[in-house]
Design brief:
Layout: H1 15-43, E1 49-55, E2 61-67, H2 74-77, H3 80-85, E3 89-91, H4 109-112, E4 118-120, H5 122-126, H6 136-146, H7 149-182, H8 200-208
Parallel strand pairs: 3-4
Antiparallel strand pairs: 1-2
């Protein structure tokens, strides 16, 4: 699916202050969880971080460092330091690998050249819908042409809801699996008793004392 590209908007003066302020606050809040996850990976003998070459505005290369897990979106949160350093924006198109045709002259270079890639973006939050995969590029292009503070905040709101939902859903799912493995729970003979209730045997044993 294709359409005639519009003129990409220049990134507003609000974008970097938002990235720096909110990115720093989120990084500080996530730091204890990220540290615990890193220690857990190291204790299991697993690689803690992944390193992926990516390109920024005008093809400038950088190495994207992420926590080696998808659990609760921790891999995405672990990239917040790139936002603070200015290599990523909180919201923007997905960072591309060097040589990706989508970033070349024959692809979307006209709007990707001056647009900083994002930690999340319109295409990422809409991937959960039933749209065809080839429309993700159109969503990134739409963002480039209509970016605004209001749109950024809407994308961030949607992006943050998923880890929060998973934070509740995962423990509940694990608890349900544990119950299925252990079979049905059974009440003991005393679980249903009212306060002060005693059997005849218990009364007799008390009298004998």
């Amino acid at each position: 699916m294709t359409r005639t590209p519009g003129r990409p908007r220049t990134q507003g003066r609000w974008k970097r202050p938002l990235d720096l302020t909110l990115g720093t606050a989120l990084l500080l809040l996530a730091a204890p969880v990220l540290a615990a996850a890193a220690l857990a990976l190291a204790a299991r003998g697993r690689r803690v971080m992944t390193h992926s070459p990516r390109t920024g505005p005008h093809g400038a290369p950088f190495v994207l460092r992420s926590l080696n897990t998808r659990r609760l979106g921790l891999d995405t949160l672990s990239r917040l330091h790139h936002v603070v350093r200015g290599e990523l924006s909180l919201v923007g198109p997905e960072p591309l690998a060097p040589g990706d045709v989508r970033g070349g002259p024959g692809g979307a270079y006209h709007w990707r050249a001056a647009l900083k890639p994002g930690l999340t973006g319109l295409a990422q939050v809409r991937r959960r819908s039933t749209m065809p995969w080839d429309e993700a590029e159109l969503l990134d292009q739409h963002y480039a042409e209509h970016q605004s503070l209001r749109l950024d905040l809407a994308v961030l709101d949607e992006a943050l809801r998923v880890p929060l939902r998973e934070a509740v859903r995962v423990p509940l799912r694990e608890a349900a699996r544990a119950l299925r493995r252990g079979g049905k729970a059974r009440l003991s003979d005393t679980d249903h008793r009212l306060p002060g209730y005693r059997t005849a045997e218990e009364v007799g044993s008390v009298g004998a004392d």
